[in-house]
């Protein structure tokens, strides 16, 4: 099973200096390693060429963000399994083997995420992916080990192999044939939540998405956009709405869209009361972009298959903010 580890890079020389050696040390025997460079203007490429000549480089002509960056790079990479990994991720010994074993046993499993812990505090899960992702009734993402901003300690409670709804773009594995069958990432997202869309579409096509807790990586998070950056708020709110329009089943469509518009409005008011009006403006900007793209995304809608496990019984917003349930195992 030929595996390619593909690190998307944009002006990340310092991150490559820190994290690429570990990826090479713990992965080179099981996979070919690539750096897909998004038209960097720093010395990223020169660093890789000088110190890691065995690592292959794919040079994209423009910085098309996460979605287009991977779409462009993976056109020229031949492998059975792609591992898409951020440049700010530390891997561990034997991190690939448990994942490949699941791929070999389960032909219908198309996407797998490892356990993602916080590089800055390795006792805790990391915001982006944690122990595997899910969506609530209104299309809001949450994770095992992370509900909104509540992060759990890793007490090995998620050292299992489990079906999940979405795998984090910080690090996940995907069968190359499925990636290309689905047309890769939707480039209209640019960055953030395009992996949720890809996982959603894969399930609508009858494939499974899994989490393998015996594989562990550590993610810095926010290396490209900090959590406090309003552009990140803009992308997350806009792209989450686009996911809803593109993928929610027809019978729930109007209910979910209208509910989301109301809830996002409440979130904007909340930011005002927290004296963070720049994020309120980011949500407003996200909604303006959403309205502009609404017709376009209606045209992208896929016909959902029965296998889709879109969660229609849980409102994480209600449980977290009203009922005070902060951990995954507390959710009803």
Notes on the protein architecture:
The protein folds into two domains: 3-111 and 157-214, Spore Coat Polysaccharide Biosynthesis Protein SpsA, Chain A, CATH 3.90.550; 230-327, no CATH class. The protein has helices at residues 13-27, 44-51, 65-74, 97-105, 176-181, 194-204, 230-247, 253-273, 277-298, 316-322; strands spanning 3-9, 32-38, 56-60, 81-86, 89-91, 109-118, 121-125, 133-135, 141-143, 146-147, 150-151, 161-163, 171-175, 208-219. It starts with a strand and ends in a 10-residue tail after the last helix. Strands 1, 2, 3, 4, 5, 6, 7, 12, 13 and 14 form a ten-stranded mixed beta sheet that branches. It is built from ten helices and 14 strands. Helix 7 runs antiparallel to helix 8. The protein is α/β, with parallel strands linked by helices and 332 residues long. It is 38% helix and 22% strand. The model has no long low-confidence stretch (mean pLDDT 93).
């Amino acid at each position: 099973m030929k595996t390619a580890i593909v690190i998307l890079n944009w002006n990340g020389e310092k991150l490559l200096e820190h994290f690429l050696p570990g990826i090479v040390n713990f992965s080179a025997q099981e996979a070919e390693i690539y750096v897909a460079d998004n038209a960097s203007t720093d010395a990223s490429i020169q660093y890789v060429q000088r110190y890691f000549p065995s690592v292959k480089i794919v040079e994209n002509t423009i910085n098309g963000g996460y979605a287009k960056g991977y779409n462009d790079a993976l056109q020229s990479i031949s492998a059975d399994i792609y591992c898409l990994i951020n440049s700010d991720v530390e891997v561990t010994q034997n991190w690939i083997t448990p994942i490949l074993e699941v791929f070999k046993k389960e032909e219908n499993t198309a996407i797998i995420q490892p356990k993602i812990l916080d590089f800055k505090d390795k006792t805790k899960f990391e915001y982006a992916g944690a122990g595997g992702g899910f969506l609530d009734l209104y299309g809001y993402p949450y994770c095992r080990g992370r509900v909104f901003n509540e992060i759990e300690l890793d007490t090995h409670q998620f050292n299992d192999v489990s079906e999940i709804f979405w795998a984090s773009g910080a690090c996940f594995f995907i069968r190359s044939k499925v990636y290309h069958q689905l047309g890769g990432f939707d480039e209209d997202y640019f960055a953030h939540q395009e992996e949720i869309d890809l996982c959603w579409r894969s399930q609508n096509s009858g494939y499974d998405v899994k989490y393998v807790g015996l594989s562990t990586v550590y993610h810095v998070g926010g290396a490209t956009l900090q959590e406090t950056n309003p552009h990140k708020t803009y992308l997350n709110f806009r792209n989450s709405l686009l996911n809803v329009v593109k993928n929610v089943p027809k019978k729930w469509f109007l209910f979910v869209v209208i509910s989301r518009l109301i809830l996002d409005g409440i979130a904007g008011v909340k930011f005002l009361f927290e004296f963070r009006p720049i994020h309120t403006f980011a949500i407003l900007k996200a909604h303006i972009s959403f309205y502009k793209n609404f017709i376009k995304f209606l045209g992208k809608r896929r016909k959902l298959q029965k296998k889709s496990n879109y969660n229609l019984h849980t409102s994480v917003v209600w449980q977290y903010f009203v009922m005070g349930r902060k951990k995954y195992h507390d959710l009803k």
